[in-house]
Amino acid sequence: IGQGKDNARQYLKEHPELAANIEQRIRAAAAGHPLAFAEEVAEPAAVG
Protein backbone atom coordinates (compact mmCIF):
# COMPACT_ATOMS: atom_id res chain seq x y z
CA ILE A 1 0.00 0.00 0.00
CA GLY A 2 1.29 3.45 -0.89
CA GLN A 3 4.21 2.11 -2.92
CA GLY A 4 3.74 4.64 -5.71
CA LYS A 5 3.10 7.60 -3.43
CA ASP A 6 6.74 8.61 -3.09
CA ASN A 7 7.37 8.11 -6.81
CA ALA A 8 4.35 10.25 -7.69
CA ARG A 9 5.48 12.97 -5.30
CA GLN A 10 8.98 12.98 -6.81
CA TYR A 11 7.60 13.04 -10.37
CA LEU A 12 5.45 16.08 -9.60
CA LYS A 13 8.43 17.84 -8.00
CA GLU A 14 10.40 17.21 -11.20
CA HIS A 15 7.50 18.40 -13.40
CA PRO A 16 6.10 21.55 -11.75
CA GLU A 17 4.07 22.52 -14.83
CA LEU A 18 2.12 19.27 -14.59
CA ALA A 19 1.65 19.71 -10.84
CA ALA A 20 0.28 23.22 -11.42
CA ASN A 21 -2.09 21.95 -14.11
CA ILE A 22 -3.40 19.22 -11.82
CA GLU A 23 -3.85 21.68 -8.97
CA GLN A 24 -5.74 24.09 -11.23
CA ARG A 25 -8.11 21.33 -12.36
CA ILE A 26 -8.74 20.14 -8.81
CA ARG A 27 -9.51 23.68 -7.67
CA ALA A 28 -11.87 24.22 -10.64
CA ALA A 29 -13.69 20.98 -9.89
CA ALA A 30 -13.95 21.84 -6.20
CA ALA A 31 -15.35 25.26 -7.10
CA GLY A 32 -18.19 23.55 -8.97
CA HIS A 33 -17.07 23.86 -12.57
CA PRO A 34 -18.51 20.65 -14.05
CA LEU A 35 -16.39 20.86 -17.19
CA ALA A 36 -13.07 21.21 -15.38
CA PHE A 37 -11.90 17.87 -16.76
CA ALA A 38 -14.01 17.67 -19.92
CA GLU A 39 -11.17 18.38 -22.35
CA GLU A 40 -9.22 15.36 -21.10
CA VAL A 41 -12.08 12.85 -21.10
CA ALA A 42 -11.44 10.01 -23.49
CA GLU A 43 -13.10 6.70 -24.16
CA PRO A 44 -11.64 3.89 -22.05
CA ALA A 45 -9.60 1.30 -23.89
CA ALA A 46 -11.33 -1.99 -24.60
CA VAL A 47 -10.20 -4.81 -22.36
CA GLY A 48 -10.11 -8.29 -23.68
TrEMBL record:
<dbReference type="Pfam" id="PF21096">
    <property type="entry name" value="RecA_C"/>
</dbReference>
<feature type="domain" description="RecA-like C-terminal">
    <location>
        <begin position="1"/>
        <end position="30"/>
    </location>
</feature>
<dbReference type="InterPro" id="IPR049261">
    <property type="entry name" value="RecA-like_C"/>
</dbReference>
<dbReference type="InterPro" id="IPR023400">
    <property type="entry name" value="RecA_C_sf"/>
</dbReference>
<protein>
    <submittedName>
        <fullName>DNA recombination/repair protein RecA</fullName>
    </submittedName>
</protein>
